[in-house]
Amino acid sequence: MARELRTASADGTDVRAHDEGHGPVILVLHAARDDGSSWARVAARLSHRFRVVRLHRRQHRVDLEALLPCSIATEVEDVLAVARLTGTPVVLVGHSAGAVVALEALAEHGAMFSGALLYEPPLRLGPPVGGEALERARTTLAAGKPGRALAIFLRDVVRVRPALARLVGAITAISPGRRALVSHQLDDCAAVDQLGVRLDVYAGIDGPTVLLGGDRSPAHFGERMDALARVMPNAERVVLPGQGHHAHILAPDKVAGVIVSLADRARPG
């Protein structure tokens, strides 16, 4: 069973994480509209050999509304606070926007991490990732239609199938908890866009890195990871057949297996 880990970030803000298992540390940074719980099945498969810490990313903490939105740099400070508490170096696992946070942590503080798995980071390659569609989603949210705002975002930014975007939006519209996280999703995208194009910075990340994706994910995720693979000197592309952006939920054994392989390869000494 997961324990609660708590520490303080550089600005004094409370940082929280799920903490389970014992051994070398794997630190997980989740995607939007989550608190790390979606990675529980992967963590359960790792915790017999590793200490798995699933950070509840600040950008998605409804209890910190007064401090939000926040920058990627602020989230990196939270990552560093947890890494220092657990002991370094750690293996860093980032999913979607959480993988962009991981990239920034690796670029600025690479010595703290022995390796990283980056699962479909939506990093900028040119124009903003959100662009006009993000603004339409924000306008719709401001009009009191969070489900519709999320559907716009998923269809036009994430580029999922329109029918799926409508379904997720409809489910969100009738769930108070889900509705509360829509603004955090949009803020997450805006924070990624504010970084700009950073491929030249990421080229300096030389630790062992796995760029994980699914062959059923929207094509732009593969294009972004291909761009990373071209500049990062020690990056390996891994594609999971039959999976998309949520293999950690649908195929936790496969994702855990990739993480174990990386962790064993990245182990110091």
Q: What's the helix and strand layout?
A:
Blueprint: E1 3-8, E2 14-20, E3 25-29, H1 40-46, E4 51-55, H2 72-86, E5 90-95, H3 97-109, E6 113-119, H4 131-142, H5 146-158, H6 162-173, H7 176-180, H8 182-195, H9 199-202, E7 209-214, H10 219-231, E8 235-240, H11 247-250, H12 252-266
Parallel strand pairs: 3-4, 3-5, 5-6, 6-7, 7-8
Antiparallel strand pairs: 1-2, 2-4
Helix pairs in contact: 1-12, 2-3, 4-5, 4-8, 5-6, 5-8
Rg from alpha-carbon coordinates: 17 Å
Helix content: 40-55%
Label the overall shape: globular
How many individual β-strands? 8
Number of domains: 2
The description of the largest β-sheet is: 8 strands, mixed
Looking at the overall shape, the CATH architecture of the largest domain is 3-Layer(aba) Sandwich
Terminal CA distance reads 30 Å
CATH top level of the largest domain is Alpha Beta
Number of alpha- plus pi-helical segments: 12
Q: Can you list the strand order of the major beta sheet? A: 1-2-4-3-5-6-7-8
Low-confidence stretches: none
Helix and strand content put the structural class at alpha/beta
Q: Give the percentage of residues in beta strands.
A: 15-25%
Mean pLDDT figure: 97
The H-and-E topology, N to C, reads as EEEHEHEHEHHHHHHEHEHH
Per the CATH scheme, the topology name of the largest domain is: Rossmann fold
Supply the CATH superfamily name of the largest domain: Alpha/Beta hydrolase fold, catalytic domain
Give short descriptive properties of this protein.
about 270 residues, alpha/beta, Rossmann fold, 2 domains, eight-stranded mixed β-sheet, 8 strands, globular
